[in-house]
Each structure stands twice: as structure tokens, then as C-alpha cells.
Amino acid sequence: MKKHIFIMVDGLGDVSIPSLGMRTPLQHLDLPHIDAIAASGVNGLLDPVEPGLACGSDTAHLSILGYDPRVYYRGRGAFESMGAGLDMEPGDIAFKSNFATLDPSTNIVTSRRADREFEHLGPPLCEYLTGITLPSFPSDKYRVDVQYATEHRCGVRVRGPGLTDNITSTDPLKDNLPLLQAQPLDDSPEAALTCKLVNELSIAIHKALSVHPINDERKRIGKQQANVVLLRGCGTRIQVPTFEERHGMRPFIIAPTAIIAGLGMCLGIQVMRVPGATGDYRTDLNAKARKLIELMRTGEYAFGFLHIKAVDDAGHDRNVDIKLKFLRLVDAMIGLLFSELGSDPDASNYSINITGDHSTPVLSGDHSYEPVPFAIANLHQAHTYTKEKVHPPLSHTTDKVTTFNEVDAARGAL
Question: For the whole model, what pTM was predicted?
């Protein structure tokens, strides 16, 4: 059976950085195992959704996995909430949400991320907010559930009659801008009703969080208060053909980041939980690799998808050193895959590719429109290249590229 391993490095791409001699992080580093994929396979540049679009991870993953987001996308909220552990029924709406910091005297969101180190605070605050009541919406008809995801993120699900996802967000998208009110995107009574509910919910959450002992303590010690939840990406569960129906391969996904796990669930991809895989800077990439190796060897799966988030976080945090650190760790993780699977009797049946869902340059700290490098190779040939450094003859499965980065990939055959 042919088997494929897909390594998705969130926020992989970057731009020329002065401190690195006007090279990108990928150009700057020696990444022997990643370069082996490039040198033994075929390469190219990938626009995850379309040229010139600074896409989100959700639309990019949908597109890369074979689902046109213009047809299937219904907001990221359902992905985040499902990945965090909330089920979604027809008629439910959900939000990908941030615990953030609001200055109530000015209505300014001073920080969209109250604190990245939030894993000890998020669960009790989510439990506290679950079941919160709203003045105009009786609790016997409308129910709010909040589930912690990762870092400062949570999923918020609202269940009740007459709701729609066709509304805007309360998130200003940048720090030091006013907290927004949800607005309808059409003239339907459902959109007007949903906006009224969401705006009441935003106020109720702020009032509740402002008097919570956790925020009293954070204020006392001079830390940012987590006194508002930004409600963004309102969505419903998408109805699509499963990944196996579409591509004929039984898949699994290793993705502790809730939005990616939830997207996988919507596509019928089995989500695998891995101890030590946290979706942040504390994550254990080798634990992910070992789980992938275990699952691929069972013979039950033909497609294994491994998502890595920390590289994207480093881009958002504008920290080039951390981005370099995690790219090295990704390379070492791929080395583990090579050393284990590359010597298996069926190693020649494995293909492996590496790419990103978008670029997150450390100079800007946000998603950008630059394409990302893409490389795919036979795993056995890539493993052999790391030992012998012999470039295979040019063929329909190889090209002249020998290093994996944004510049050299443009010379590839794809």
C-alpha cells in the first residue's frame, strides 16, 4: 500500500531579514533532513488559496486538503470549538475566541492576547463562563458553552433557535483599537437576532470576567487582565464529503491546535491525541513523530498529517531566534522519521512532503501573501540522500533543487 506523510509547518514562509544577512530563516539554516526532501524530490512555490492572498490557517488547510474554501468555508468558529471538545449540531454557531485585555474606560482592546502562558488560567475561566445568562435570551432556549483550547484561545458555542453565522466579529484584529460590535451581513431577521445575542454576550462576559478572582490577582501583581473574550470567525459545522471519500486514502491527523483538529473532524479525519504535543513553544515534536511512525506501521492508514504550530507563533511574536530554533527542531523530527521509517521493508512505498499553510514573517508579525515552499519526495530516497549526498538523476520525480527555501523552490519543477 502506498502511504503518504504530510508535514505542515504553520507560518513556515518568511522574507529577507537584515539580521540574517538579508536571507530568510530557511536560507540561513542548515537543515539536512528537510533539504534531503528537496534534493531527492520535486519542488515549487505554493499559494495555499490564491496568489496575493494573506490567508488564514483554516482556509489554507481546507484548500490544501482539497476543499475549495469559496465553496465550503463557513467561518473558523466551528473548527476551533470542535477541536476544543464541543460538539456542533445543526443550528449551532461557534466562535474562535481569544481571552484579551480591555480598557473599559475607553473600550480599547489593549492586547488581543491576555497571556500566551494561559493553560493554568484558561480552563477555570472557561468553566466559569459556561452557562452564562443573557438579559434578552431565556436560558431555557439559549445555551452558551465555553471550552479551553490552547494558549489564550477558547471555543465558544451558542445553541438556540434562529441563529446564523452570517455576522461580523467583535475582534478589532489589532491591538489598541476599539472592541467591535457584531454587525449583520444580510438583512435577515436571523442575522439581526444573532447580532443582538452576540453583543449581549460580549458585554456579559466582560462584566463576569472583571470581577473574577483571577483578574483581581493579575491586577494586584501588575499583569494584564483577561477581562474580555473576542468573539471572531462565527461559523457553523460544514457538511462536506469526507477526506477518504474524496481522495481514497484513510487519514489521521496529529494537531493539538484546536482549529486544525476541528477542521480535521469536519473532513472525517481521525484526530490523534499525543501526550506532550501542546501546540505551543512547549510542544514535543518527537512525540508527534513517534506517534506518526506507530500509526503508519499499523497498515490501517494511507495518509498521515502532522501539524506544527510553534513556527507560526514565533512569527507572530516577531522572534527570529525562536523561529530558527523550531525550524531546527522540525528538521530533527524529520530525521527521526527517516531513521525509523527509512529502514522499514516497505520504505519505498512512503512519500513525504513538507510545506506551510502561509507565510508569517517575523518583521511584520502577521500572515502575509508570499507563497510558501513545497517539496515532495520518496521517503527512502530522501533518507538515502542524507547518508550519501548523491543527487538522483533528473526524472519526473526529481528536479535540480538541492535546498529547501523560498528562493530555491522557485526553480523547482512544480
Answer: 0.85
User: Residues in the chain with pLDDT < 50?
Assistant: none
**If residue 96 lies in a helix (H) or strand (E), which one and from where to where?**
strand 93-103
Instruction: Say how many Å lie between the first and final Cα of the chain, rounded.
Output: 25
DSSP string of 256-300? -SHHHHHHHHHTTPEE---TT--SSTT--HHHHHHHHHHHHHTTS
Per the listing, cell 460544514 goes with 238
pLDDT at residue number 272: 96
Strands 108-111 and 93-103, sheet pairing: antiparallel
Closest CA to 240 of 71, 58, 57: 71
Q: How far is CA 4 from CA 130, 294, 379, in A?
A: 40, 14, 9
> In the beta sheet, which residues pair with residue 99?
229
pLDDT value of position 93: 96
Contact, 150 vs 257, CB < 8 A? Answer: yes
Q: Which pLDDT does position 394 carry in this prediction?
A: 72
Give the position of cell 473574577.
Answer: 212
